[in-house]
Amino acid sequence: MLSVFSSPGQYVQGRNATASLGSEMARLGLAPPVLIVASPSAERLLRDTWKETFEASGTEYAVHPFGGECSRAEIARIAGAATARGSAVIVGAGGGKALDAARAAADDLGLPMVSCPTAASNDAPCSALSVLYAEGGGFEAYQLVRRNPALVLVDSSVVVQAPARLFSAGMGDALATWFEARTCTAGRVRNMRGGASTIAAAALAELCHRTLLADGPDALEAVRQHTVTPAVERLIEANTLLSGLGFESSGLAAAHAVHNGLTAAPQTYPYLHGEKVAFGVLTQLVLEGAPSGEISEVLGFCTAVGLPVTLAGLGLADAGRAAVEQIAVRATAEGETIHNEPFAVDAGMVADAIVTADALGRRRQEAEGRA
């Protein structure tokens, strides 16, 4: 099996980075017309800057409102709008679902794509993968696209205007990167691009983890104040670039499969991708029989940055064994990434791991409440 490392063509991050979007695209030869697929918040925050940057670079563009769900129907609507306008580039601006929908539509049309995340809420911006959901919100499938984004541009000044909960959720998604990467690397399983991991991908995944632990709580506090600090810049990079490169070029395992299982429970729909992944990390560690010290470290980090460590924290306070087993069945469906674990996994094992993870999280919360 060949080793494969996958990455965007260029990554740009910093204060007021959106002002350079037009010139960066022109330098890369990304010619107009441009269709911007924008969430409502992205358009509200950036419409004036888009006008300035694209006028300065002589770039024709139009804005298409994102419908809110990365579904097949929404992707088709975006592709239809791009075709009608003769668009040559699709820009995704907003959260992970807006970027995923823009990426999938661009791939369907054979067009280059640019990622402009307005929150550091997940590792979607850099990847060549879109997570598809049913219109109701349940996980449907991963769509692997042919190319990573030609450009990822992250405006730190915009990211810190988003709710702090989104930043925290990004840390939850990034938290899984190293634990899943080491599992996949040790087992030499295929990564998201169909090859083996490289030592570069594994090193980036581990750096992502170290950055989270070192800077996560301080960066979150700065984001709550809507300020950009060096810790915030490092965490934006960890949530976006390091996590994106690490997961795609090393692979996914149980944590993301548990996330997908959790989407089988409608009570979890109001919760963010990274929040469900964080609980998936805890479940994966229990499933793998990780040392208690490592589990304790994850519990401490999650509670420090407001990530859920119990089923109650995901709207499942009253979930009985039957509901947990339904989640476990979905998490172990054929083709799920949980089967990258180095041992055979069945739904019963996952249900037990979920119940145990929940108990450990509740015990941690009770201990902190007594402190």
Note the topology.
Layout: E1 11-14, H1 21-27, E2 34-38, H2 40-56, E3 61-65, H3 72-85, E4 89-94, H4 96-109, E5 113-117, E6 129-133, E7 139-144, E8 151-155, H5 156-159, H6 164-187, H7 199-224, H8 230-250, H9 254-262, H10 273-288, H11 292-304, H12 321-331, H13 347-370
Parallel strand pairs: 1-8, 2-3, 2-4, 4-5, 5-8
Antiparallel strand pairs: 6-7
Helix pairs in contact: 3-4, 6-7, 6-8, 6-10, 7-8, 9-10, 9-12, 10-11, 10-13, 12-13
Shape: globular
Q: How would you state the average pLDDT, rounded?
A: 95
Annotation, overall tally of beta strands:
8
Uncertain segments are: none
Judged by helices, strands and strand pairing, the structural class is alpha/beta
Please identify, by name, the CATH architecture of the largest domain. Up-down Bundle
**First-to-last CA distance:** 51 Å
Number of domains: 2
Percent range for β-strand residues = 5-15%
By CATH, the superfamily of the largest domain comes out as Dehydroquinate synthase-like - alpha domain
Strand order of the largest sheet: 1-8-5-4-2-3
Describe the structure.
- The chain is an alpha/beta fold.
- The chain folds into two domains: 11-159, Rossmann fold (3-Layer(aba) Sandwich); 164-370, Dehydroquinate synthase-like, alpha domain.
- 54% of the residues lie in helices and 11% in strands.
- The protein is built from 13 helices and eight strands.
- The protein has helices at residues 21-27, 40-56, 72-85, 96-109, 156-159, 164-187, 199-224, 230-250, 254-262, 273-288, 292-304, 321-331, 347-370; strands at 11-14, 34-38, 61-65, 89-94, 113-117, 129-133, 139-144, 151-155.
- The strands form two sheets. It has a six-stranded parallel beta sheet with strand order 1-8-5-4-2-3, with helices on both faces. Strands 6-7 form a two-stranded antiparallel sheet.
- Strand 4, helix 4 and strand 5 (113-117) form a beta-alpha-beta unit.
- Helix 7 (199-224) runs antiparallel to helix 8 (230-250) and helix 9 packs across helix 12.
- It is globular.
